[in-house]
Automatic annotation (TrEMBL):
Its EC number is 4.2.2.29. GO terms for cellular component: plasma membrane. GO terms for biological process: cell wall organization; peptidoglycan biosynthetic process. The chain crosses the membrane at residues 27-50. This is Endolytic murein transglycosylase. Belongs to the transglycosylase MltG family. GO terms for molecular function: lytic endotransglycosylase activity.
């Protein structure tokens, strides 16, 4: 009798377990089907969203919308401007499209677009720089200038004073804002109390067009920083490989810039400076002395060489504390790709020729031969 009861109980357990397993399988199947449907719906929704974002905002619209693309704007910045003005539906999609198509070299200026334009039409306009207005002001900032000299040029062309420009670029709260906006370019080093002016060396030498009568100092500064960031970003892998940071690389580039205008000479001079740094010798370059003095003299005296300053490379056995001017791109290129040389010395004659030497004795001979 007990055996029959045990047998019945065993059968009941089997049936119960079978029913539970069937229920579990059904639940798992339902979950898998639901997940599959979610993925399919998500994929279809994503596809439809991207497809829609690639199409004109309003293919029938004839509305003309004027937008300004600032100098040095990145594709991300341009996408944001276009989206905010209702010319495209989604800035991220436009940015990915530009990257996928490998488009670049967009031109700054004031443009007239319509919501009916396709991505390709917008890109074509941006590449060709089809602006509706001529620049109100065109200002050229040469290479090798200090912030003080740059302020002088802008004050002569625009409606603010040199003092107002300098006050803005030395405003530490504004500088901190810029550091947050350009974290890959501006570091804490520019706020060192011994730095003469934080943005020295960071305002790129170029020709700038302005499409408004009175551009703000902030828009000018930020446009120049955009240009610097655009140039420096191309050299970042090489800078990191040299174990430099951006501030050191731009400091080095500014010294090379101030030593000579010749691209070939810059590579040689860069090589000499590397040799001196490796030998723990002071760079002993006159432009740093002049910057330390705050003067633009043609001749440096022995008395000048004694000025106590973290910029004076006759006193410090490394790079100075910061840049001494802005730079041309080929000066930065000379820093990351110097000539291979054994020279430790060089000097300029009055005609701009440079004579190199491996030893101090040879250097003295060159001085006697070419400087008298």
């Amino acid at each position: 009798m007990s055996k029959k009861k045990d047998s019945g109980s065993f059968k009941d357990n089997l049936i119960t377990r079978s029913q539970e397993a069937s229920t579990v399988r059904k639940i798992v199947l339902i979950i898998l089907v639901a997940l599959f449907l979610i993925l399919v719906i998500g994929a279809i929704s994503g596809y439809l969203y991207v497809k829609s974002a690639l199409e004109p905002v309003d293919a029938e619209s004839e509305e003309e919308i004027t937008v300004e693309i600032p100098i040095g704007s990145s594709s991300s910045g341009i996408a944001t401007i276009l989206e905010e003005n209702g010319i495209i539906k989604d800035g991220k999609i436009f940015r990915f499209y530009v990257k996928f198509k490998n488009e670049s070299d967009f031109q700054a200026g004031e443009y007239t677009f319509t919501p009916a334009m396709t991505f390709d039409e917008i890109i074509e306009s941006l590449k060709n720089g089809r602006v509706i207005l001529d620049a109100v002001h065109t200002v050229t900032i040469p290479e090798g200038l200090t912030v003080d000299q740059i302020a002088e040029i802008y004050s002569e062309r625009l409606d603010f004073s040199k003092e107002e420009f300098l006050e803005t670029v030395n405003d530490r709260s504004y500088i901190k804002e810029l550091m947050n906006r350009y974290p890959n370019l501006l570091s804490e080093e520019i706020l060192d109390p011994d730095i003469r002016t934080p943005l020295e060396g960071y305002l790129f030498a170029s020709t700038y067009d302005y499409y408004v009568e009175s551009p703000s100092i902030e828009s000018i500064v930020e446009g120049m920083l955009e240009q610097t960031q655009s140039v420096v970003s191309k050299y970042m892998p090489a800078i990191e490989e040299l174990d430099f940071n951006v501030h050191e690389a731009l400091t080095f580039a500014s010294i090379v810039e101030r030593e000579t205008a010749s691209e070939e000479q810059r590579e040689q001079i860069s090589g000499v400076f590397y040799n001196r740094l490796e030998a723990e010798m002071p760079l002993q370059t006159d432009p740093t002395v002049l910057y330390a003095l705050g003067e633009h003299n043609e001749v440096v005296t022995y008395e000048d060489l004694e000025v106590e300053s973290p910029y004076n490379t006759y006193k410090v056995t490394a790079l100075p504390i910061g840049p001494i001017s802005n730079f041309a791109e080929n000066s930065l290129n000379a820093v990351v790709d110097p000539a291979e040389t054994e020279y430790l010395y060089f000097l300029h004659d009055k005609k701009g020729n440079i004579y190199y030497a491996e030893t101090y004795e040879e250097h003295l001979q060159n001085r006697d031969e070419y400087m008298n």
